[in-house]
Design brief:
single chain, 281 residues, 9-stranded mixed sheet, 5-stranded antiparallel sheet, 8 helices
């Protein structure tokens, strides 16, 4: 493939030097804002074709999302080789068999329940097969509608399951996050792809963990991987992958963590980046 001159293409931007001829054997995709457009709530045809091209070439295609395995149903027909869900807290093979599982400590969930007893802070507890919300608020309805997901049932605070939470979504602003995490969930880590809430996972867990797992599972070196994302919960993955690609709609913190900045999902960003690096033609 003839190499593009990035200086003549204002829609895509390399942020560091690397070998464009390196062999890519696995590509990891975030879902919301990356595979699925925030504007249309669908996967652009160019992204579908790109995934098919990768599969025809024997390149692994793997989802890396903050969603649960049940919530990836709308895209499973594309035939992915694996799933990193809950930002790395649970990973599955292509048939849905679980490969890893990390839960938030019961102590952290207990502190969260106690802290929110008399405070207007909403949260969602995410389990392997179900989800529960503290309060049904306009923010909850809006966020679920945006993702085309149903509004979760209300948590039974008198008998909560505190031992099997894989991820929590806590509706606090970015300016409140550090103090909240230090006080309430100090053995966890927070990341966000929206100012509305933070994804909270066990400390040390991120999409990078999922990328590492699938490198081992498929016998790949990390240099043979490429990853696409647009949110704060994608940063560790983009930094670790052989080539990390930020979508055009990503925030400045995500773009600065990437090796390459492509266009939005609606502007064929996935196809353009894969073509730029010669992964597809």
């Amino acid at each position: 493939m003839q190499e593009k001159n990035p200086n003549t293409d204002s829609t895509t931007t390399p942020t560091s030097d690397f070998n464009k001829q390196q062999t890519i054997k696995a590509v990891f995709f975030d879902i919301d804002g990356t595979l699925i457009s925030f504007n249309t709530r669908t996967i652009p045809e160019s992204a579908v074709l790109a995934i098919q091209k990768l599969q025809e070439q024997g390149i692994r295609v793997i989802v890396a999302t903050g969603r649960s395995i049940q919530a990836v149903t709308p895209i499973r027909h594309l035939g992915f080789d694996g799933y990193v869900t809950f930002n790395g807290s649970a990973c599955y093979d292509k048939d849905g068999n679980q490969l890893s599982r990390y839960t938030i400590s019961p102590d952290s969930i207990s502190r969260l329940l106690h802290y929110t007893e008399n405070r207007e802070i909403n949260f969602v507890l995410m389990y392997e097969n179900t989800v529960a919300v503290n309060l049904v608020t306009p923010e909850i309805i809006a966020s679920q509608t945006k993702l085309k997901l149903p509004v979760p049932p209300v948590l039974d605070r008198t008998n909560p399951d505190i031992g099997n939470v894989l991820q929590a979504n806590v509706f606090i602003g970015p300016e409140e996050e550090a103090a909240f995490m230090q006080t309430v969930m100090p053995d966890c880590v927070a990341a966000r792809w929206t100012p509305l809430f933070a994804d909270v996972n066990p400390a040390g867990i991120s999409k990078k963990i999922g990328l590492e797992l699938f490198c081992s599972y498929f016998g790949l070196d990390v240099s043979e991987t490429m990853a696409f994302g647009d949110g704060g919960n994608d940063i560790t993955m983009l930094q670790y992958a052989g080539i990390g690609v930020a979508m055009g709609n990503a925030g400045a913190n995500v773009k600065s963590a990437a090796d390459y900045i492509t266009t939005d999902a609606d502007e064929d960003g996935i196809w353009k980046a894969l073509e730029y690096f010669g992964v597809i033609e």
